């Protein structure tokens, strides 16, 4: 199936796993981050076409990540 690069940034292991299951069933194999800093790192490494963000995470929440991405004109994202 598709290999569209996606990054999931979610600090809750349960929610992260539910998102992974749903995306894997559709043929995606997303990269995972557990906090804001790791999310930005994954974006730089993976060059994803989509970033799925939790609004409240340690080490820079989803809003911090959005501001960073908006400032650099980078990837589209979905805030949960």
Structure explained in plain terms:
By secondary structure, this protein is of the alpha/beta class. It has three helices and four strands. Strands 2-1-3-4 form a four-stranded parallel sheet, sandwiched between helices. Strand 3, helix 3 (62-72) and strand 4 (77-79) form a beta-alpha-beta unit. The longest helix is centred in the N-terminal third of the chain and has 13 residues, at 13-25. The termini are far apart. The model has no long low-confidence stretch (mean pLDDT 86).
Order of helices and strands: EHEHEHE
Number of strands: 4
User: What average pLDDT do the residues reach?
Assistant: 86
Compute the separation of the termini in Å.
25 Å
Name the descriptors:
about 80 residues
Fold blueprint:
Layout: E1 6-9, H1 13-25, E2 31-33, H2 36-46, E3 50-53, H3 62-72, E4 77-79
Parallel strand pairs: 1-2, 1-3, 3-4
Helix pairs in contact: 2-3
């Amino acid at each position: 199936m598709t290999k569209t690069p996606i990054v999931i940034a979610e600090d809750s292991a349960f929610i992260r796993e539910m998102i992974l299951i749903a995306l894997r069933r559709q043929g995606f194999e997303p990269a995972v981050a557990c906090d804001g800093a790791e999310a930005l790192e994954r974006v730089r490494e993976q060059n994803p076409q989509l970033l799925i963000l939790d609004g409240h995470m340690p080490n820079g929440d989803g809003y911090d990540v959005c501001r960073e991405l908006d400032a650099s004109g980078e990837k589209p994202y979905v805030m949960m």
